[in-house]
Design a protein that fits this description.
The protein is of the alpha+beta class. The protein contains one helix and four strands.
């Protein structure tokens, strides 16, 4: 899905998308509406919006910034 929308594969599971904000918004909508329902604890999706300094996280990545207490 990402390469069809102009993404460049940097590593096995790392993509870079240099495109218009409309295309990037469409990719985010596809992730939120279609793929996020199927994410498990082993899946992590992190979207770095460099221009606006925003980060969106899906799957296991949402727990990266939360405090965890172990006994």
């Amino acid at each position: 899905m990402l390469t069809k929308n102009g993404a460049i594969r940097l590593q096995f599971s790392v993509y870079e998308v240099n495109n218009t904000s409309r295309v990037i918004d469409n990719i985010i909508v596809k992730i939120e509406n279609g793929f996020s329902k199927h994410f498990s604890g082993a899946d992590s999706v992190v979207i770095f919006d460099i221009g606006n300094a925003k980060i969106k996280k899906y799957g296991n990545a949402i727990h990266r910034d939360c405090d965890v207490v172990y006994f």
